[in-house]
Write a structure and sequence with these properties.
Structural class: alpha/beta
Number of helices: 13
Shape: globular
Strand content: 15-25%
Number of strands: 17
Helix content: 25-40%
Radius of gyration: 21 Å
Strand order of the largest sheet: 4-12-11-10-7-5-6
Distance between the termini: 35 Å
Order of helices and strands: HEEEHHHEHEHEHEEEHEHEEHHEEHEEEH
Largest sheet: 7 strands, mixed
C-alpha cells in the first residue's frame, strides 16, 4: 500500500484518538525508518521509548519467532520458562525481590497503586490509602492513573475519577510534608518527569524522600515506565539515585517493541498481592518474555555506558548548533528534553523536523528525544544536520 492509502484506510476505520503526523512507516533498520515509497527518516522517538534495540535486530526477531513456534500463550494458571527467567534477571540486576508482569504502563501503575493500598490496609486497616504524587507528573490514561497524574488538564471529561490522590510540588520536600497527613500510604514519583517536559529530580530531594518514606512507612513507588530498561544509561533510573524503591513499574522498552509491562517489589512487599488479589490475561506472555530476555542480554554494562555517552554527544551537539528557537537541553542518557524559546511552538518545530526526515516528540512546552538505544554515530550526526538545516 502507498502512504496515502494507509492514511486513508486508518482515517476510515480507526478511532481518531491520536493527532497523527502525515507519515506512514513501513520498515526500518537500526535507528532509521522508511515509508512505503522508500523515504528515510532518522528516528529520535523509538515508538515513544519502546524500540530500545531499534529496527531489524536479528537476535530479537529470532527469539520471537522461535518462541512463537513453540508456545505463543498460556494462562498464568500454569508455568512457562521465559517469564520466569526474565523475572530472575530483573531481580538479580536491580536488588528487587519479585515481579508481576502486565501489558502497558498504565496497567503497571494501577498494579503499583493497588499494592500500596493493600499493604497499608493489611497493616493499618482502613483510612490510610492516599497516595501523594508530584505536580507535572504523568502516570497513565486509565481512570485511576489519570487522577494520579499531577496535571489538572487530564482531570476532565471522565468523571467520576478515582479518589485518594494529592499533589506536591516536584523537588520540594516542604510541599510534600504540607500535603501529607495521617491518611497517606505511599508517594509515587517519576525520577525524570517525561510527559511533563523531561525534568530530572535532584539527587538530594530523592534521597530525602526515600528517607522520609522509610520513617513513616509510606511505600516509595517509582514510575519507570519511560525511564526504565536502559533509557537513562542505567538499567533503571533509581540505580543512579542510589535508592531501592518499595515498588517500581516498568513498560515501554522491556520487550523491545512487543506489549509488556510490570512491577517489581522489594522483600517487604513481595507477599502483599496473593492469589486472587491481582491478575491479567496476557501478563508474562512467553513470546514477549522471550523478546525481553534478548533486551536484557544486550543491555550489559558496556552497552549502558555507551547510552550515557550517546546522550552526552547529542546534547552537546544540539546546544552547539545555537539554533534561535531552541534553548538548553536536559535529561539523563538518551532521554533528552530541549527547551523551546518564547515565540516558538514545539508542535510546529516537531512538524517541520518530521517533514524534513527527523522524527521527534514533544513534552510539556519543549521537544523530547527518545532515540533507539542502538542509534549509531552516523544516525545521530544525520539527525543533528537535519535539525541545523530545518531550524536555522
Amino acid at each position: 500500500m502507498t502512504s496515502q492509502a494507509i492514511q486513508q484506510l486508518t482515517q476510515d476505520f480507526v478511532m481518531e484518538t491520536y493527532g497523527r503526523f502525515p507519515v506512514a512507516l513501513d520498515h526500518g533498520q537500526g535507528a532509521t525508518l522508511y515509508d512505503p515509497e522508500g523515504r528515510a527518516y532518522i528516528d529520535f522517538t523509538s515508538g515513544i521509548g519502546v524500540n530500545a534495540l531499534g529496527y531489524g535486530c536479528q537476535p530479537w526477531a529470532d527469539a520471537i519467532a522461535a518462541q512463537a513456534k513453540k508456545l505463543g500463550h498460556t494462562s498464568n494458571l500454569f508455568y512457562t520458562e521465559p517469564p520466569a527467567k526474565l523475572a530472575e534477571c530483573l531481580c538479580r540486576r536491580t536488588g528487587e525481590s519479585c515481579v508481576f508482569f502486565a501489558n502497558g504502563g498504565g496497567e503497571a501503575n494501577e498494579g503499583m497503586i493497588k499494592l500500596a493500598r493493600k499493604y497499608s490496609f493489611d497493616k493499618y486497616g482502613q483510612g490510610r490509602s492516599t497516595i501523594i504524587t508530584l505536580k507535572n507528573s504523568f502516570h497513565g490514561r486509565t481512570i485511576t492513573t489519570l487522577k494520579a497524574t499531577g496535571q489538572d488538564v487530564f482531570h476532565n471529561f471522565f468523571f467520576p475519577f478515582t479518589e485518594g490522590f494529592r499533589y506536591a510540588d516536584a523537588g520540594n520536600l516542604d510541599s510534600l510534608l504540607e500535603t501529607a497527613g495521617e491518611d497517606v500510604c505511599a508517594v509515587m514519583v517519576e525520577l525524570v518527569q517525561g510527559e511533563g517536559g523531561v525534568l530530572p529530580l535532584e539527587q538530594s530531594y530523592v534521597t530525602a524522600l526515600a528517607d522520609l518514606c522509610a520513617q513513616r512507612d509510606w511505600l516509595l513507588l517509582v514510575d519507570e515506565v519511560q525511564t526504565g530498561v536502559g533509557r537513562t544509561g542505567t538499567l533503571f533510573a533509581f540505580q543512579q539515585y542510589g535508592i531501592l524503591p518499595d515498588v517500581v513499574s516498568f513498560a515501554k522498552g522491556i520487550a523491545g517493541g512487543l506489549p509488556m509491562s510490570g512491577i517489581m517489589a522489594n522483600e517487604k512487599c513481595r507477599k502483599v498481592l496473593g492469589p486472587g488479589m491481582h491478575a491479567t490475561t496476557f501478563g508474562g506472555n512467553p513470546v514477549c518474555a522471550a523478546a525481553g530476555l534478548v533486551v536484557q542480554e544486550m543491555l550489559n554494562d558496556r552497552f549502558l555506558k555507551e547510552v550515557q555517552e550517546k546522550g552526552d554527544y547529542l546534547r552537546k551537539g544540539i546546544e552547539a548548533l545555537h539554533l534561535p528557537c531552541l534553548g538548553k537541553t536536559r535529561g539523563l542518557g538518551l532521554m533528552i528534553g530541549i527547551a523551546v524559546q518564547d515565540g516558538w511552538s514545539n508542535q510546529d518545530l516537531a512538524k517541520r523536523l518530521i517533514e524534513n526526515g527527523l522524527l521527534v516528540l514533544t513534552a510539556g512546552p519543549g521537544l523530547r528525544l527518545l532515540p533507539p538505544l542502538v542509534i549509531s554515530q552516523d544516525e545521530m550526526d544525520q539527525g543533528l544536520e537535519i535539525m541545523k538545516k530545518t531550524l536555522s
